[in-house]
Structure formats: structure tokens, C-alpha cells
From TrEMBL:
This is Response regulator receiver protein. Pfam families: GerE, Response_reg. One of its GO terms (biological process) is regulation of DNA-templated transcription. InterPro entries: CheY-like_superfamily (IPR011006), NreC/VraR/RcsB-like_REC (IPR058245), Sig_transdc_resp-reg_C-effctor (IPR016032), Sig_transdc_resp-reg_receiver (IPR001789), Tscrpt_reg_LuxR_C (IPR000792), WalR-like (IPR039420). It comes from Actinoplanes friuliensis DSM 7358.
């Protein structure tokens, strides 16, 4: 059973999410909050597994909340929900450790799949904006010795996969280009995240960029 906390300053959005997710037999909505500070208190009290977190809220926004929860060392998996597909704050939230990024118009089935994915430790980005986010993350020039050092632990094959992720390639595209099965690509991605300290593809793309590999 996945324990879910909904955090959004719009009461109608919270109600809509409850209606969408309330009927799922393996998801329990344990609470909701209207801002980041309230969310932190709810996390301490309710110990959710996953948070659906709006990025723009009064009192304390989703970015600060993500950073504070991650810094506490006891953060649940976080999915950022937003109406903005090119918001620089979303990039910062992902870099801070959010496990996913979805637009608020994401179909219910994909939202449910995302909750299950991040609860299992898998990153989940909205397909319609993945390339935009990675492109925005990879414009600034490198290289950075710290990023290069983090990636130096990768095998040659893992480094090839990491560079493809930095270019915005999907697992299926990587499999085709590098003559691998999709399952092997996924296994490589998991190892890359573990070795590099990244929690999602955007954070990894930023690290690949900073290492001067693009």
C-alpha cells in the first residue's frame, strides 16, 4: 500500500486528485496540505511514501520544500506537479532530489503509474517535456571537475548510456543506438544513478553537461 500526501494551494486541484486516486486499491491518501510548511508537518506526522507537490505555493513553495525534506534525510519520494513545462524552478527541484515531474494535465493512468514508479525508486518525467527539461539543463558550458569525478566511476558502457541520457534519449532509443536490450539499458541506468549520486535523468543530464561530455 502506497501512502500518498497531496500538496497544492488550490483546493479544487486537491479535490480532483482525491477523486482520481481515491479509488485505487493500492494507494491510500493519508493527508493533504496547502503549502510547503504544512507539508513538512504532515510528513513528520503521517510518514507518507510519496508526495504530489505543487511547485508554486504561498508561505513556502515546492522547491524549498523539496530541498528541506531532502536535507532532513527522511524525505518520501516526491513528484512535482506543475502547469509550467519550462519552469526553471522545476529543474532545480529535480536537481534537489525530486523523483518525478508531471504536468497537471497528465492523464490519470499515467499519474497512477508515476506514483507507483517513484514509490519503487524509479524516476518519472512527463514524456511531453522530458526533452525540453534536458535541453534547458544542458545549455550552460562545462566542464566541471567535480562532475567529471562523479562520472569517472562509470564503466565505458555506463558512460555511453549516461551521455545518451544527456542528449535526451529514451531507454528504447539508447537500446537501438548502443545495440542493447531495453532491460540492459534499465540495469545500466540504475547503476549509473547509484554511482553518480543522481536521482533522475535530468540531474544526470546536468552532470554530464557539467563534465563537458556533450
Amino acid at each position: 500500500m502506497i501512502r500518498l500526501l497531496i500538496v497544492d494551494d488550490d483546493a479544487m486541484v486537491r479535490t480532483g486528485l482525491r477523486l482520481i486516486l481515491g479509488g485505487e486499491h493500492d494507494i491510500t491518501i493519508v493527508g493533504e496540505a496547502a503549502d510547503g510548511r504544512e507539508a513538512e508537518a504532515q510528513v513528520r506526522e503521517l510518514s507518507p511514501d510519496v508526495i504530489l507537490l505543487d511547485i508554486r505555493m504561498p508561505v513556502q513553495d515546492g522547491l524549498v520544500t523539496t530541498e528541506r525534506l531532502r536535507a532532513s534525510g527522511r524525505a518520501p519520494a516526491i513528484i512535482v506537479l506543475t502547469t509550467f513545462d519550462a519552469d526553471e524552478h522545476v529543474l532545480r527541484a529535480l536537481a534537489a532530489g525530486a523523483g518525478g515531474f508531471l504536468l497537471k494535465d497528465t492523464p490519470p493512468a499515467k499519474l497512477i503509474a508515476a506514483i507507483h514508479a517513484v514509490a519503487a525508486g524509479e524516476p518519472m518525467l512527463s514524456p511531453s517535456v522530458t526533452r525540453q527539461l534536458i535541453a534547458a539543463a544542458t545549455h550552460a558550458p562545462g566542464p566541471d571537475n567535480g562532475a567529471a569525478s562523479d562520472l569517472a566511476q562509470l564503466t565505458d558502457r555506463e558512460l555511453e548510456v549516461a551521455v545518451e541520457i544527456g542528449r535526451g534519449s529514451s531507454n528504447a532509443e539508447i537500446a537501438t543506438r548502443l545495440f542493447m536490450s531495453v532491460a540492459t539499458v534499465k540495469a545500466n541506468v540504475t547503476r549509473i544513478f547509484q554511482k553518480s549520486g543522481c536521482t533522475n535523468r535530468v540531474a544526470l543530464a546536468m552532470k554530464v553537461r557539467d563534465a563537458g561530455l556533450l
